[in-house]
Amino acid sequence: MGDIAVEGMRIALPSAAENYDSIFDGTGYLVTPGLIDFHLHLFDGGTDIGLPGDICLFPNGVTSAVDAGSAGCSNYPVFSRDVIGRSRLTIRAFANICPAGMATSAYHETLHRKYINKERLRELFERYQGELLGLKIRFTKELVGDDGKDTLEAAIGMAEDLGCPLVVHTTNMPLKADEILPMLRPGDVYCHVFQGRGNTIIDEHGEVDQAVFCARERGILFDAASGRNHFSHKVAQTAISSGFFPDIISTDMTAGTAYQYPVYSLSHMLSRHWNMGMPLMEVIRAATSVPAKVMGMDGCRGSLTPGMAADLAVFQTVHKKIKFYDFQNEVLEGDKMLIPQMTIKDGNIVFRQADFLDEVRSF
Fold first, then answer.
1. Which among 28, 128, 189, 202 could disulfide-bond with 132, CB atoms 3.0 to 4.6 Å apart, if both were Cys?
2. At 208, phi and psi to the nearest 5?
């Protein structure tokens, strides 16, 4: 790729006639669209697990993010006002089916039908149209028991009524992948795709279940959303070695894993997938253009095309020994990683390493 220019808040074609304020020599660096973390928890101050987005994301090349069900219909207005409204990040969200969302870690959210308020959800989606992307359900034995099919069907029905996608948390799910996937609709998101608890995407023969490939052909999206408890190196390596890559790579980061074991950052999670055999450009797409399209922003973000919003990230590709850990503390030893050098959000530098300096500066 050649030179990239930023003029105002947009990416532009470089012009010899322009007197640019700063010129950076990007030789040997990887320049990407600003990263998009499609699954994490940003309700800082409103939930036990919420993290401060601008502080945790800009230093890692992330310029846009999606909150994955931290808030429900009872507290989403506060989340929108106090988090989205005050952040320099571009933030979208999925609303939790539970009215209280994921307010506390002391106990799980309830999915009992008598507490689900369809009308309030409908009002929420009308009020926050363009900001709310869809619904989120944690389909796990801890919440729905050993069956839960009726609960999932009800969630899909609500999403259908609202005309929106559904994100399904699948760690320790009560049904098999080949039972859940046919229920999902094009555009729905099967998250924690490489989780290793209970039923996984690996069949009894030790291979990726054919239902997974069929679902992808129908338009179901698969998100890594690794988190602390949702990533198995064994499951991921089986899938990646067979050519099955996640559509989206996100962190499921919380206050307890931001800059901390085993997640650290989105750039760290991208490095893990790169070390597992995904081509680097596929890794980058899974955190830029693909989630941008799902968010309805592919016309303005997720690309370095002139005219797009000037969200950019600069990385150094470093070859060094590094260890990655999964939910069982199993180690993957890698030899390369992406180190963030600079982040630009809407044309403004919001982070850069102390030694990544301007080559020329005009006054």
1. 128
2. -65, 125
**E-state strands within the chain:** 5-7, 10-12, 22-23, 30-33, 35-40, 62-68, 90-96, 132-138, 166-169, 189-191, 221-223, 312-318, 322-325, 331-334, 337-345, 348-352, 360-361
Sign, CA dihedral 106-134-223-193, equals: positive
139 and 150 Cβ atoms separated by less than 8 Å: no
Residue 183 in tokens: 């229920």
- pTM for this prediction: 0.96
Q: What is the pLDDT of residues 239-263, one digit of tens each?
A: 999 999 999 999 999 999 999 999 9
Is the bond leading into 262 cis (omega within 30 degrees of zero)?
yes
166-175 pLDDT per residue, tens = 999 999 999 9
Q: Which amino acid type is present at position 155?
A: A
